[in-house]
């Protein structure tokens, strides 16, 4: 289904700074880890936004902010036009029903002492209005079937399932409250490559069946390519480039995106690799002390004086058709179209 209509999720200038403290008895704040530092985007009904960036760039913190599991330092999240207020219980409960999460690690995210039926049905304990007690078993069995598991296995325990099957259990649980939005935080990163495609195909099927909108987080551009309508690339707590999938993959304009893309192997029909390789120097700087101006400048081969002084805004620049946060943004086809 093509994404359409008003945004279902509106994120504006979202910031999460974790205080850095010193001292054990007399704690003093000596700084802050700028995990998420001014992130804005919209998500439409039925749309998938891929969010990509190296480990530590703030992807999971962003996910927790969207789920209202973390309180933002500043900024706002609206769902269906309504501001999410972590201080208003009724508002939060309704909101929590509508936005669910699928976690990264299917081995640790499921309680080993609970049966699959209890795990998937647990959200009904809080949201009793969705499934009265007598209906729950049937609802859970339906969910097992929807995600491609055997409904007769409702009384089994997580250890009796494979990694891919466990992730299906996590997805079934995410679907239990019939949400409109699912945040998938690296849902396939812990799975074998052969299983990854099956789980992604399942998520795509569920999306068209139930009109779900996804935020799909990954550390690698190759994983989100297939499923994303749009992609946001994050670096040190900020979005550095965002656009439609074709804009990001075929016409990347930010040096960081170009470097990430150059790490994705893409053979052409003759089996030859057609990508250009850009090797990034060093690791990302600490989010407690990000570089002045452009945060990517310490690793950027195009950096000029202005990059240390002036922060590049995320905007469409001449010669490009989507937003990029680089003073010298220019389209560069890293993966030469074959
Ligand atoms: N609860 C927390 N307290 C302090 N720092 C945190 C906390 N959660 C995450 N961080 C820090 O915030 C940064 C972003 O982390 P995270 O959102 O987990 O990144 P990602 O998911 O992209 O790997 C990291 O430097 C991490 O150490
Ligand atoms: S603004 Fe400067 S340092 Fe930042 S990505 Fe662009 S060229 Fe590189
Ligand atoms: Mg993470």
Write the layout of secondary structure elements.
Elements: E1 4-22, E2 28-45, E3 48-52, H1 59-66, E4 74-79, E5 82-83, H2 89-98, E6 99-102, H3 116-121, H4 123-126, H5 136-146, H6 163-175, E7 181-185, H7 193-210, E8 213-218, H8 221-225, E9 230-235, E10 238-244, H9 245-250, H10 255-262, H11 305-309, E11 315-316, E12 323-324
Parallel strand pairs: 3-8, 3-9, 6-7, 7-8
Antiparallel strand pairs: 1-2, 1-4, 4-5, 9-10, 10-12, 11-12
Helix pairs in contact: 5-6, 6-7
The structure holds adenosine-5'-diphosphate, iron/sulfur cluster and magnesium ion (MG).
Organism: Herbidospora galbida
Pfam family, one: ABC_tran
Protein name: Dipeptide ABC transporter ATP-binding protein
Describe the model:
This protein is α/β, with parallel strands linked by helices. The protein has a single domain, classed as P-loop containing nucleotide triphosphate hydrolases (Rossmann fold), CATH 3.40.50.300. It is built from 11 helices and 12 strands. It has helices at 59-66, 89-98, 116-121, 123-126, 136-146, 163-175, 193-210, 221-225, 245-250, 255-262, 305-309, and strands at 4-22, 28-45, 48-52, 74-79, 82-83, 99-102, 181-185, 213-218, 230-235, 238-244, 315-316, 323-324. The strands form 2 sheets. Strands 6-7-8-3-9-10-12-11 form an 8-stranded mixed sheet, with helices on both faces. It has a 4-stranded antiparallel sheet with strand order 2-1-4-5, with helices on one face. A hairpin with a 6-residue loop joins strand 11 and strand 12. Helix 6 (163-175) runs parallel beside helix 7. The protein is globular and about 65 Å long. Residues 18, 33, 35, 53, 55-61, 287 line the site of adenosine-5'-diphosphate.
